[in-house]
Design brief:
single chain; alpha+beta; Alpha-Beta Plaits; 8-stranded antiparallel beta sheet; 5-stranded antiparallel beta sheet; 29% helix
Length: 355
Amino acid sequence: MDHIIEDWRASIATARATRVPLRLRGGDSKHFYGEAPQQQHTALETRAWQGIVDYEPSELVITARCGTPLADIEAALAERGQMLAFEPPHFGSEATLGGCIASGLSGPRRMSAGSVRDFVLGARLLDGEGCIRTFGGQVMKNVAGFDVSRLLTGSLGTLGILLDVSLKTLPRPVQEVTLRLEMNEADAIVAGNRWLAQALPLSASCWHAGVLHIRLSGAPTAIRSAQAVIGGETVIHGDAFWRDLREQHQAFFRDAGDLWRVSVPALTAPEQLPAAGISEWFGAQRWLRDVGDPMVLRARVALLGGHATLFRSAGKTEAPRFQPLAPPLLALHRRLKAVFDPHGIFNPGRMYSEF
């Protein structure tokens, strides 16, 4: 498969010479996320670079190429009773590992297991000079300075072509139960954070329209004890509920209009935000529509210690997709871009117009 990398190197050289940037494209299932291309570009397809390179179930580590279908990786893990614990959304059957890492999106289990970045152990990158750079490895360890392999997570392909990624895996829970409780959003947030403090086996939460859903994951005895504390009604086929939430299949997500993802301190009261929607992670992540002036929303969220992302745009606002960066952070991003992509050929403007 070395010829694929050589073809990519030729594309990089052409992009440098012609000053026509490259748009990296895998399964294209997350094309809506981030800013749209603002100039002429050439598409560089990454799906041909696929396959599981190494998988050590006993070591809880898998290494795969960026074009590998996400479904193939999850199927291989499931055969050995393991999973990607951050529960990544696919948003389409063509989703790839590269898109999963580049977008940095996590699903309902992020509340208990952690984010994509927490599970990245190492990566290989083809940079703007056509050089292969290797970062991290296949073990968890502390490093001095930037942990570049994790830095690539959520970079939306602006630093280079992600070649391979090593990820930590986890065993699948022995049992999972979904509970349904009727309560308002404020009570759901307070109760949920109280349950979290009690170290109950909570792995996901979702409040919407007066109903709170909770997922319990773990040993049967621990789940039974948690049910006695929480109460509620057991949901049949609860796994389908969380899959639909992860893939945004509910009617709320299908409605027309802009969709905002807001990250705030979990105990933020609902009335401090301009609209009600879906609340996940016991209040730490909120999905909103009809927010009014985006600048007012972002200013309010910033005062609360959070940030707001225009996750899906219906073209009703010209607001930037991501919360504007403070000058020191913007300068840092620019320096990183200059190191890995000095000619500015990879996905320019996909995150911020400044780089």
